[in-house]
Amino acid sequence: MPTRRWDARASAIAAVAIAVLYGVLGLAVFGPDAVYSGDIGVKFVQTRALAASRFTSLDLPYPGEFLDPAREFFPIRPPFVLTVGGETQAIYSPAAVVLQTGFAGLAGMRGLIALSFISAAVILFACSRMAVAGQKMAVVIALGLASPLWFYAVLGWEHAPAVAFSTAGFAVALASRQGWTCVLAGLLVGSGALVREEVILLTPGLLLIIALRHRSVYAVAVTCAATIVPVVCGLGMDVLVGRPPAAHLRHAVYLIPAVNATETHVVTPFTQRERYQTVIQYWLLGYGNDRWIVAFSSALFVVLAARWRFPGRAGTIPLLLWVIAVVALAAIDLREVMTAPKWIAGLHRLSPYLVFVLLPPPTTGERGPWYHRGLLTTAAVYILLAFVGTNFTGGKSLGPRLLLPLLPLLAVAAMARMVAYLRARAAVDRAIGLAGTVLVMMSIALHVTGTMPAYYERSREDTSTLQTARAADARVIVADDPFTAQLLFPLYYRKVIFLADSSQLRAKLGTLLADAKVPEVLLISRRPEPGMRLSPLKLRQSDRVGRMYIQYWGRVGRERN
Fold first, then answer.
1. Phi then psi for 89, rounded to 5 degrees?
2. What is the sign of the dihedral through the CA atoms of 86, 92, 95 and 98?
3. Do the Cβ atoms of 524 and 477 come closer than 8 Å?
4. Most buried in the list 60, 159, 313, 502, measured by CB within 10 Å?
5. Predicted confidence (pLDDT) per residue in 49-70, tens digit
6. Does residue 262 have a pLDDT over 80?
7. Which candidate, 343, 467, 371, 297, places its Cα nearest to that of 130?
8. Can you give the pLDDT at residue 528?
9. Could you tell me the pTM of the whole model?
10. What SS3 class is residue 513?
11. Which residues lie below 8 Å from residue 214, measured CB to CB, with a gap of 6+?
């Protein structure tokens, strides 16, 4: 009993320490003003607008309207925005915007980051509560240091808050058999779906957990109703303000063509091959070689069949060999990333120890928690539904951001199985558990020596661009593509940002700026030679700052000192 109390206290301390580490990384080590994704830039603009209106309007202001009243050079384009009753609003969930606005209104981008690492702390605490006594510390360490959770904890994205809601919901569902837990669990998962729509895919798994826990159809029905309530409220909010219901979801998911034909975007359905490449290769595994995928999957099927047919040592040795092969593949990835720090995709590739979710219990010793199959089924149903509905890759990020709601649940289940192997009586079972420990250590090394340095360099480069643009005398900034413009949005309320991504727009903008006697303009591009001129303005200087190229343009006859 004292050991279990120590484990609970140590896991709580570790969760706080890791959350503080996330805060230091996000607010001090990495450039807090750097925008990794254009989505974050648009959300920053939207949250600051809502805060300025004191939560009365989602309309996006346009600092350049005095020069461009027709909004021809407005830097935010569909599908990131939509028109609602004469207002321009971001396409994202109003509930997510409201949640983030309280933090962004207080501290800007740093406020959004603070919300993310606080949410990560909630995720770690919730997973600690879900873990079996004696395994809590292991779960917190594995999830906090050996997974891509750190990445979403240091960015101003809404992913961490959404996953905090859903993970807390599952923790409550597993806590006790009291009736109120069904209501609270459903409300939490439903609230997570309000913030990020993919969280709703956890609902079948939550209902299964409730069914296994309570053995009651009534409890399942209550949980289902509680989950639906926040979602219905969110849809009602959309209708009330005149927005297309679930606009962001309909941008990314193909259900029925007529439903998805919003004014901003028409979704084209993925082929089955594209869905496989997105969900299985890109999100889940991180490998694009079909032969390797088939080989490892087939081998797993064979060793599981052998283990079922020969439950003793003869059936366990093939399983050990398969796990060793996973370790070897992870070692190749680790060496590659340590040699040249970079992003890699795939939940498995970033946290290979999660394969322990798929392993049967050891032949001797503990069987593991009762909810293991429930969490595994939750993941399987989630991935199946994502495969059926997705028509969006999610862009380039560290790990699969659209599978992120599964990460905490899989970490809890995987570590429970790994600890069971480590505590088994048979030597071959303990060897499998030891291989799992090696995978956890390799995952930590992969992030500390590879993915974190890669993001550090990226954030510092983008921060240097923002600092240069902020310090320049020029009030007007011109971007030559929408995504470059979005990366500049931390300056949205300090400068006037225009977007001119065609030769016709560039020519028109140059004349407009010259006629308005704008003394100096910055042109920022990700290309060495932007291929655009702002005639009749004159190019005076061109510099490379970070990964961007900054050109200084001014009126003819005026030279830069």
1. -125, 150
2. negative
3. yes
4. 159
5. 999 999 999 999 999 999 999 9
6. no
7. 371
8. 79
9. 0.94
10. helix
11. 177, 182, 220
CB atoms within 10 A of CB 162: 27
Cα-Cα end-to-end distance for the chain: 74
- Classify each residue of 378-388 as buried b or exposed e, where b means 16 or more C-beta atoms within 10 Å of its C-beta: bbebbbebbbe
The per-residue pLDDT for 4 is 72
| CA distances from residue 389 to 269, 305, 505 in whole angstroms, order as listed | 9, 31, 37
Residue 366 has pLDDT above 90, yes or no: no
- What pLDDT score was predicted for residue 258? 38
How far apart are the C-alpha atoms of 206 and 381, rounded to whole Å?
A: 11
- pLDDT tens digits for 139-151? 999 999 999 999 9
In DSSP notation, 244-302 reads PTTHHHHHHB-S-HHHH--SS--PPPPPHHHHIIIIIIIIII----HHHHHHHHHHHHH
Provide CB contacts within 8 A for 246, sequence distance 6+.
Answer: 197, 234, 235, 238
Which has the closest alpha carbon to 271: 391, 403, 385, 383?
391
Q: Tell me, what DSSP letter sits at residue 199?
A: G
Task: Round to whole Å and give the CA distance between 180 and 101.
Answer: 30
- Which residues in 35-45 are b (16+ Cβ under 10 Å) and which e? bbbbbbbbbbb
* 68-71-76 Cα angle (round to 5): 125
Q: What is the pLDDT of residue 260?
A: 42
For residue 261, pLDDT beyond 50:
no
Q: What is the DSSP letter of 489?
A: G
**Domain residue ranges in the chain:** 2-285+366-439, 460-554
Could you check whether the bond before residue 318 is cis, i.e. omega within 30 degrees of 0? Answer: no
HEC letters along 366-394: CCCCCCHHHHHHHHHHHHHHHHHHECCCC
- Please tell me the distance from the alpha carbon of residue 71 to that of residue 497, in angstroms, as a whole number: 11
pLDDT digits (tens, 9 = 90+) for 17-40: 999 999 999 999 998 889 988 899
Q: Which residues contact 489 (CB under 8 A, 6 or more apart)?
A: 35, 41, 42, 44, 45, 75, 497
The first and second tokens of residue 331, run together, are 């070692």
Tell which wins on pLDDT, 249 or 336.
336
Q: What angle do CA 10, 13, 17 make, to 5 degrees?
A: 135
Q: Give CA–CA dist 202/406, Å, rounded.
A: 8
Contacts of 421 (CB under 8 A, 6+ apart): 356, 359, 362, 365, 429, 430, 432, 433, 436
Give the torsion sign (CA, 174, 371, 116, 437).
Answer: positive
Sign of CA dihedral 522, 523, 527, 532: negative
Relative to beta strand 87-90, strand 476-479 is unpaired
- What DSSP line would sit under 419-484, residue for residue? HHHHT-SSHHHHHHHHHHHHHHHHHHHHIIIIIHHHHHHHHHHHHHHHHHHHHSS--EEEESSHHH
The Cα angle at residue 310 between residues 304 and 314, in degrees rounded to 5: 95
* DSSP letter (8 states) at residue 488: T
What is the DSSP secondary structure assignment for residue 517, as one 8-state letter?
T
- Reading the block at residue 64, the tokens are 């350049």
pLDDT digits (tens, 9 = 90+) for 106-141: 999 999 999 999 999 999 999 999 999 889 999 999
